[in-house]
Amino acid sequence: MNIRFPKIVKLCLISLYLIFLAGSVVRMTGSGMGCPDWPKCFGYYVPPITEGQLLWHPNHQYKKGVVIIKDKILLVAQTDFKTTLNYDETNWKPYEKHSYAKFNVFHTWTEYINRLASVLSGFFFLFLIVGSIKFWKKKKIITILSFLAFLLMLFEAWLGKTVVDSVLSPSIITVHMVVGLIIVAILLKLTHLVDNDKRVAKKTDKLFTNILWLATIFSLIQIALGTQVRQYVDEQVKLLGFENKALSLLAPDLKFYIHRSFTILIVLVNFWLYYRNKKLGLNFKRLNWILILLVIEALSGVLMYYVDFPIGTQTIHLLFGVFLFSIQFYLILESVNDLKTDS
Asked: Any transmembrane segments, and where (predicted)?
């Protein structure tokens, strides 16, 4: 195997986790519309740092596509021009995607950093597909999965644009999350393929593998339920205002209670896996991390509900949920591979 390719796969995976982290910070701080256009931010590659940069000024040179806020409306420059002493509306056209026209420097730069993380990740995925080409003759699946991951990243970029154009549609955000998890799974499969020769064979147990599949499916269901709860919170925040976010779960809907109660089943199933792993000496050490992640997930969920969303808890809850799914999926890859080896 090419010794550099495994490192590229890991860099792609790390960069994807950074995107999850940056995205969760964006949602935690309500910065999703910090840049109301895409891919630029208020028409700039580097966003403004003061509101004055977004106001109309006389005797000022404007570039085509630059955005200003005038009378609480986003306006886009139709061409390169220099203003006179009087405002000429023929030089401008209203932004057509939505009517959101607010500027908050903290929100803008939080969203901008999120986009920079995505751009950086995109370069790693380019290196991934280039490096995978040499495996086409020996192991086509590596090349196929690498190109699939890259194409899904492009789809994620389009979804990111759609999220902004829709003014943070909860359903599109949910799809955005699910596709991200699919990419994680593909990268983990690539990691397993390129590291396969280095792995130490473990004891196998078909029942353990089947319950592990069940535990991973439960985690996916829980993440989906969590996105639904998040949708409800987002809708309440829109009604009550971001400053009143703590009030958004005063009267939660049924999905919240299902999400909370389903945690009990998830904990029981994973504790069973831990017990069977110890009893049979299967040597899946990553199960220790699963238990730690479950504790952190439960604790952060309790804090969000009972302590009114302490800063950082939403980010931890999302990111560690992704880690939980990642470890479970990789354990499946190891377990299934060992079963095939034994057979």
From this structure: 112-129, 141-159, 171-190, 211-229, 257-275, 287-307, 313-333
Rounded to whole angstroms, how far apart are CA atoms 305 and 309?
A: 7
Measured CA to CA in angstroms, residue 135 lies from 6, 121, 144 at distances of 12, 22, 10
Cβ atoms of residues 34 and 23 within 8 Å: no
One DSSP character per residue, 34-63 reads SS-SSSSBTTBSS--SSGGGGS--TT-EE-
Residues near 123 by beta carbon (within 8 Å), at least 6 away in sequence:
none
Spatial strand order of the sheet with 92-94 comes to: 67-70, 73-77, 92-94
Tokens 């999120």 sit at which residue? 114
Question: What pLDDT digit, counting tens, does each position of 227-251 carry?
Answer: 778 777 766 766 766 666 666 666 7
* pLDDT of 287 higher than 60: yes
* Three-state DSSP class for residue 205: coil
Mean pLDDT computed over 23-29: 84
Q: How far apart are CA 126 and CA 130, in angstroms?
A: 6
